[in-house]
Amino acid sequence: MSPARTRIAAAQPAIVPLDSIKGRGSATAMAHRFERHEREQYDDGWGSLDQAATEEHLPPATQIIEEQAKSILSRNQSPDISFDYSINPYRGCEHGCIYCFARPTHSYLNLSPGLDFETRIVAKMNAAERLRDTLAGARYEPRSLVIGTATDAYQPVERKLGLTRRVIEVLAEAQHPFSVVTKSSGIERDLDLIAPMAAQGLVSIYLSVTTLDNDLSRILEPRAAAPARRLRTIQALAQAGVPVGVSVSPIIPFINEPELERILEAAAEAGASSAFSIPVRLPWEVNPLFQDWLQRHFPDRAERVMARIRDMRGGKDNDARFGTRMTGEGLWADLLRARLRRAAAKHGLRTERRPVQLALFAPPRKASAQGSLF
């Protein structure tokens, strides 16, 4: 990792406070790994650094960047992920989860994986049209598909733009199966589309519940729905006949790990029928961002947390190898899996994925460039 990664991104103000920013997971607009230039704070002799340290810094506002996507389906190339295609109507995520493994994707946009990832959200305005074109193509074959793998498809901006809803409308027309992973109660809005498809075996939903502690949730994933609200969403989906599971991911040693069994119990009581969990991953810029977060919020246990993560990652902060990156390895990773299986069995939760129903797929009508005249 180059030194530039821990510097302040050129696109941001020259001085960024290292204290936590209310409503944001990251405290810095750290430079991405492709940054060519470094920026350092410099005292010009007029006491500017001391003055800046005492000034009130306004929280960064969220910006929406509209984009016309060339394609919308991403093909999975990893053998340790159980789906074939993914759809991400947005890039970046306002939820601000400090641990999000997708943060480094903002580097490809020449944006910071820190504050930019959670404040500069790219909206793929033509997502539904691109999906329709793809599904209507003569060569397309239906496969398992997940909405929201590198973003939360129901993050706050979805209430205004409705890109995810339009994507689901196309999938409903084509009777194409899909899954969603989300932390948002916003998915309840689309029950009119999701419930009828669920009745045909075409939908499964997973709510990510990482903690039941409101105080921890506020700093871990500051703009996501509160834990109790997510449990009510599980209940609403289950009552509507939608298969709903709980994702206790990521598991962070000594942070949310002690809650694993209690989260599964609460999710089962709310109506969840399945569960899975993934140990925390720290790829690329996520590593320094996460360690900075640990030092800000849990300085007393930061070293112990990182030591246990390394125990599961072959002595490294992160292990990107296929086969182990989603599960970890070693005694502690084995213990986590055993705890999950034992607690899931106790509460009647499946730990295997549901089979995907592909037989009902019918290509949607093709979009007309000029629209219909009648």
UniProtKB/TrEMBL annotation:
SMART domains: Elp3. CDD domains: Radical_SAM (cd01335). PROSITE patterns: RADICAL_SAM. Residues 79-316 form the Radical SAM core domain. Keywords: Iron, Iron-sulfur, Metal-binding. SUPFAM superfamilies: Radical SAM enzymes. Gene3D superfamilies: 3.80.30.30. The keyword Metal-binding applies. The keyword Electron transport does not apply. GO terms for molecular function: catalytic activity; iron-sulfur cluster binding; metal ion binding. It comes from the Bacteria. This is Radical SAM protein. It comes from Roseateles puraquae.
